[in-house]
Amino acid sequence: MSSLAPKPALDAVAEAEAKWLTDALLGRRDCDTFRKLKDLCRHLRGSAIAPRFRSPPPTGQERITQCADAMYRIFQSMHQGSDPYSFARRARCFLEVGSNPGGFTRFLLEQPHTHGVGVTLPVDEGGIGRAIPPNDRFELHELNLLDLVSHYISSGTLPFTRTTFDSIILDVDHSSPRLLVAQLLLALSTIHDGGQILLTLSCIERPQAARILIAFSKVADYISLSSPPQAQTWGVFYLHAQTVRVNTPAYRKLIDNLKRLWYRIHSIHTRDPTWDEEDLITPWEEVMKKSNMDLIAKLGNPVWETQLKALYRAFEVNSKQSD
To answer: Listed GO molecular functions (predicted)?
Structure first.
């Protein structure tokens, strides 16, 4: 290419790299489930098939209650069996950023020795108010997350009775890059050494989720992913980072990079990071390394399997129809 040729716009670069990641995963021998999932999505779009739910999707308070119950069941399934590393068994002092509609917190507070702090949006900013009944082991704060993180970064203080936690749940809007940065910075700044973090993300095959996954793999001893079985939440998955090591060079580098990223994007109106700025989470060249692509495929396969089954059920499509 001539050196005089104009460089593509940044959004075009991001789009091209996102396509590269998808194509690279589709081309792997160990990503057959992902290929089936993409084929089914194309089939459904081309056929204009509408999902067939047994009853109309809920709205209003009914939807809030159903979402809370679904979140409760997700934690319940993670708690089954004798696994000593299940999230609830290790949670004694937790922070939930989201607490909306509160299914995760409700389950954790059923454990008698657990205490927690919750952060939810003010009602005038889209919050739903107190979704969790009052409990002397749980304090709930209605706060703007961006303002909270900005204040914490500048002052080092938080308006909570506890400011470090062994377990942190991040369940704010996963489609907002700026909110993801704020959540990551708050969680990694307040986690105990050896603690655990549960983060809601969307589509592991997308660059932002891949960057975050690789970043956590460097600071935690073990990473697992799970996906809710409902088609209404298609694409959503939960990243569980266990035994986060805060006294390591990798952790210190990630924290420093997230702070640098925050200083760049934060202003009166905090903006989303650019493609190049997201290299501060994980450089794109690292995502493309074979070892990291292997990790994405390994952890992604169970998630894609759950998503594929959910779409088959919701659209009443036989697996042979999408071949």
So the answer is: methyltransferase activity
Any idea of the CA torsion for 309, 314, 318, 322, to the nearest 10 degrees? -80
R_g (Cα) of the chain, nearest Å: 20
Please report the domains of the chain, with CATH numbers, ordered by start residue: 68-293 (3.40.50.12760)
pTM of the full structure: 0.86
Q: Spell out the residues 6+ positions from residue 156 whose beta carbon is closer than 8 angstroms to its own.
A: none
Average confidence (pLDDT) over 294-309: 94
d(CA 91, CA 111): 9
- How many of the other CB atoms lie within 10 Å of CB of 283? 15
Backbone angles phi, psi at 77, to 5 degrees: -65, -35
Distance CA 222, CA 244 (A): 8
Query: Does the structure show a pLDDT above 60 at 173?
Result: yes
pLDDT of 170 above 80: yes
For 128-158, letters b (16+ CB in 10 Å) and e give eeebbeeeeebbbebbebbebbbebbeeeeb
| Cα–Cα nearest to 228, from 312, 309, 127, 108 | 309
Show Cβ contacts of residue 247 under 8 Å, excluding neighbours closer than 6 positions.
193
Would you say residue 157 has pLDDT above 50? yes
Structure tokens at 248: 């390591």
